[in-house]
Design brief:
Elements: H1 3-6, E1 9-13, H2 17-29, E2 33-37, H3 40-50, E3 54-58, E4 60-61, E5 64-65, H4 66-72, E6 80-85, H5 90-98, E7 103-106, H6 111-140, E8 143-144, E9 147-148, H7 152-164, E10 171-174, H8 181-190, E11 199-203, H9 212-217, H10 234-237, E12 242-246, H11 253-265, E13 267-268, E14 277-278, E15 282-287, H12 291-296, H13 302-308, E16 311-314, H14 324-340, E17 345-346, H15 348-356, H16 362-376, E18 380-381, H17 388-391, H18 409-423, H19 428-435, H20 439-453
Parallel strand pairs: 1-2, 1-3, 3-6, 6-7, 10-15, 10-16, 11-12, 12-15, 17-18
Antiparallel strand pairs: 4-5, 8-9, 13-14
Length: about 450
């Protein structure tokens, strides 16, 4: 164990010199290196310069209130904060905990309670170090949370995810279809303080306009035709956890207005309801569009965009992830082998062929191609098991669509959609992007085709 872990640091903030010296002695006995500050301003400078592991923060200081510092640093502070006060009330304690304090102590200091709290902080520090070490080792092997890849482009993404995960900041993921935005959101959740609470995902482009508000905010019984009972929406269901809103630019403008209000107030109003409900949800949004262009095209409200992009992260397309095709291929192959209780391999020629393709559908397309090849292969995946466009036998976008003279425009559109979907390995998002329509439009058309085929 290194020195940083064996001797964590504590910042003590109190304007009473006698109390400060006495507290420093007690904290040092528990194995902490101590630093002291007598004002909020001194504390801010010390935190920025030295990054303490724990802060014992007096409630009343000459230049302000201790909770002010808590509120200022809520999204960036990694230290555990123990509020120290001589005037503790239930309201004070609740407010401190709401703002992210680890716990609180009352004056005069209860020594056994101080020892217990510092022991917990030290234990947490050691656990964080172990997790950090393990995470570094996994990164070398190409794993980071739910994500896979060792390329420099992905290492940059991992750095950003690692930095923002412990905070409460809203994250905006930007990337082409199939680049792994939902996996990035899941990883953020798993590395956050909310990891023991729910993670829910909602594809804003796959829900009809008249139902999306009910899915987000819930509805009361009788709010609309078919609302036979009260329904809790995604915000209520994952309160305390993380909500991933995919394809945010496909959300109707009216719903965007209400989403902005929830993000700013922390309260939702069910459809048909009259009483607001408090929710505590971290929102991660995503889009496969250029967000600035979406704002210019009136697909995304500008005020919502600025509220969401507190911490934007761009996910690179697979073609820019040097070396990751092989890493991902072996990862997916191992997954399919476990699922099928088999031990199939991939040939060198097939792996080299996969690395030459430009993967317009990104990681999702690679996974679909490998799953199909895994089914076709006997013991070893070969080039013969790969689709024609990947092996170069036929261009991916050059496939012909069976049309005939006299065919209706609806039928021609149907053939074009189904052929495009087949060429792209069944990826609806990539097909929608290729065809220039929204995912919601594509879902609706495919649903209609399915209904027509069963009549």
């Amino acid at each position: 164990m290194n020195d940083q872990v064996s001797r964590p640091t504590a910042l003590l903030v109190d304007d009473d010199a006698t109390s400060l010296e006495a507290l420093a002695v007690l904290v040092a006995i528990e194995g902490f290196a101590t630093r002291m500050a007598t004002t909020l301003d001194e504390a801010r400078r010390d935190i920025e310069a030295h990054h303490p592991d724990v802060i014992l923060l007096d409630l009343i200081l000459p230049d302000g209130h201790g909770t002010e510092l808590l509120e200022e640093l809520a999204d960036t502070l990694r230290a555990e904060v123990i509020l120290v006060t001589g005037k503790a009330t239930v309201e004070t304690a609740v407010e401190a905990l709401r703002l992210g304090a680890y716990d609180y102590l009352t004056k005069p200091i209860d020594l056994p309670r101080l020892k217990t709290l510092l022991a917990r902080v030290r234990s947490n520090q050691e656990l964080k170090h172990e997790i950090s070490t393990l995470r570094a080792e996994l990164r070398e092997l190409g794993r980071f949370g739910a994500m896979v890849g060792t390329s420099p482009a992905m290492q940059k993404v991992y750095d950003l995810l690692d930095r923002v995960a412990p905070t409460q900041a809203t994250v905006f993921l930007i990337g082409e279809s199939g680049t792994g935005k939902e996996l990035a959101a899941e990883t953020l959740h798993r590395l956050s303080r909310r990891r023991d609470a729910k993670f829910l995902a909602l594809n804003c482009g796959a829900i009809s306009e008249n139902l999306i508000e009910s899915e987000l905010f819930g509805h009361e019984k009788g709010a609309f035709t078919g609302a036979s009972r009260q329904h809790a929406g995604h915000f209520e269901r994952c309160s305390g956890g993380t909500l991933f809103l995919d394809e945010i630019t496909e959300m109707p403008m009216e719903a965007q207005v209400k989403l902005l209000r929830v993000l700013e107030s922390g309260r939702i109003l069910r459809v048909g309801g009259t009483r607001e409900v408090d929710v505590d949800v971290r929102v991660i949004a995503a889009t496969n569009r250029n967000p600035e262009e979406a704002v210019a095209d009136k697909r995304l409200r500008e005020d919502l965009f600025y509220r969401l992009k507190v911490f934007p992260i761009s996910l690179p397309p697979l073609r820019d992830r040097v070396g990751d095709v092989a890493t991902l291929s072996l990862h997916f192959l191992a997954e399919f082998n476990r699922r099928g209780d088999v031990d199939k391999r991939i040939g060198t020629a097939a792996l080299e062929q996969l690395e030459t393709w430009h993967w317009p559908g990104n990681v999702r397309e690679l996974r679909n191609v490998l799953e199909r090849a895994h089914i076709l292969a006997d013991a070893e995946l070969s080039c013969e098991d790969l689709p024609a466009e990947v092996t170069g036998e036929a261009p991916a976008r050059g496939a012909t669509v069976p049309l005939r003279v006299g065919m209706s425009l609806d039928e021609a559109e149907r053939q074009l959609i189904l052929s495009t979907l087949d060429q792209l390995g069944g990826s609806k998002r990539t097909a929608a992007e290729t065809l220039g329509v929204s995912v919601k439009t594509l879902y609706n058309k495919l649903k209609r085709y399915e209904e027509e085929s069963t009549r």
